[in-house]
Amino acid sequence: MSGALDALLNKFLDMDIPAFDCLVYYKGEEVYRRLAGYGDYEKTRALSTEQRFYIYSVTKLMTVTAVLQMVEAGRLRLEDRLSDFLPEFEHMTVKEGKSIRDAIIPVTIRHLLTMTAGFNYDRSLERPAWRRARAASDGHCPTVQTVCFLAQEPLEYEPGEGWEYSFAHDILAAVVEILSGQRFGEYVRDHVFAPLGMRHSTFDVSEIAEKDLCAQYRYREETHELINCGKEIQNGFRLGDLYESGGAGCCSTAEDVMKLLESLRKGEILRPETVTALSGNQLSGIQTGMFQRAQSDTRYGYGLGVGCPNGTPGWSCFGWGGAAGAYCAVDRENDLCLIYLQHVLNTPNKYLRRELYPAAKQELRIN
Question: Rounded to whole angstroms, how far apart are CA atoms 198 and 125?
Fold first, then answer.
């Protein structure tokens, strides 16, 4: 298998993407694998299949899986109020023009999964919620305690009346902690990673040796430079050493993520009907418009925590991407799964990576 995929990946190399790992499965079998570049800043070690990457928002698929496992077990319902588990969210406020008023509609689990709750993704360390969380925890920021400070800030809109990319999955991780009595990473380890044999995946970055994490860069658009992020293991969405971000906190490998994608495709880790629900568009017309404008792409809708098909001919995958360039796609209709990993923040191929899925279909001669 070559041609369209290789041509697209060659474009990424022409854009100076320093390293990537691309893996494609078709009908349950590996049909394409390409690694390029180096795993270290010194460019002495060629990228290996066991090199780990921060997958950032591809983490959301793991969080959605954990939440929907609890729904299947009857421990959680999509219409449950967030305040049933985290009472701090019972009395919310909402922005209205230049003023703030009390929210009328309670935030639900469905609102969180669909990004329609009204939270935002302002991760500035000067954000009041994060300043208070760090002060209250001496900088450690335990997940549940930390996300509860978001309840003190106004929502962008009344729950259910819009779409806004946000820390919703981090809040869902806190709900999983409350229900399970475990740290979020421990729950995912026991109920997702271990059953699927994802032995290189973790939320605990302290267990990762420096040499095992792929060198990470930041792209400076003004000068077209790649800035070395340094050898210190870092992820700006990890607010403290006890914070486990359900939206962006996992480190993994291409082979590990593929195990999850394949399990979702086959309806194993979640029931087939659950996967059908999570991969179906859940947004109203107004919400869909807000989502597609934010994504600069009309091919996707948004399901229960992931991008999903929206009726565009030839676009039948669900999945998501990550801040450093990761991208995944699951096409149940055509038995196709794809995972692409790289490590460039503010990546110049942010929109072009979405063409990996149609390129793979082209190679497999799938309409």
Answer: 32
